[in-house]
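queue> holo job accepted (zinc ion)
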Amino acid sequence: MASKIVANVLKSGRIAHAYLLRGPSASIKEALAFEFAAGLLCDHPAPDGSACGTCYSCKEVAKRAHPDLYVIQKEGSAIRIKRSHEVLREALSRPFHSRRKVFILQDAEEMTDEASNALLKLVEEPPSYVVFILTTGNASKIPETIISRCQVIPCRQLPAPHEDREALMERGKEAERLLREILESSPVEEAVKYAKTEPAERLNLVSLLETAVYQRIGRRVESGFDRDWSADEDTKGDYRALTALVRAKDRLSGNVNAFLTFSILFMELNRSFRLVDIKGKTT
Ligand SMILES: [Zn+2]
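queue> job finished
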């Protein structure tokens, strides 16, 4: 699904300045970050926006040697200011070869405060040709000021093979019922109810809600929406909801007060879907 989202971003041609790939698997996020970068830098992209795989840029991205691709990894235990100064300098000079400059910032949660302040300046007012792709396994450690400027792309692992199709469909239906129930009730009352459950059940609730939102996106991806995708109100709502769910999961894992976390989450879900007739669309 994450890969489909990236494909749709490339297809739409409407590229945001910062994306946050968030998920547990470093290899999945890394592969996706480079696939994304190839699509952004490709000299002759296919009509659907995907990388051709054969041009100079695609080959150089594969070798991780493209002159407009910068990969920033942690040194020792943290991403330090020296690198962020380099990033600042590089971001302010025009691309050498491609239309864009792409910065992949791996394990963004490892940024020092100074480094994230420097990055924040860039994502607040990025030069038009700059795209940041941040990856993280722990979004709760990234300042909200940065996350709020990123499009969050959750990178989930594929379901285990023993999860058969029927079980997945059942879970999908349960997820949609749950989302509807939460949107139809008072956020605070629902928060009281779910805050009383066991920690594992709380995380399961958030995962189910994520599933429900993914299904909404999936249906739209499959119906091949070619219109102005990133400006689409439904899509904006879905993204906003996913970002809220990602944050809630991190808060719950970090033992932040469950009632508070759920109150914020349910209010944010209500706001995300305010303009959408979710009852009609999820049945
Ligand atoms: Zn290419």
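queue> Residues 42-44, 51-52, 55, 57-58 surround zinc ion (CB under 6 Å).
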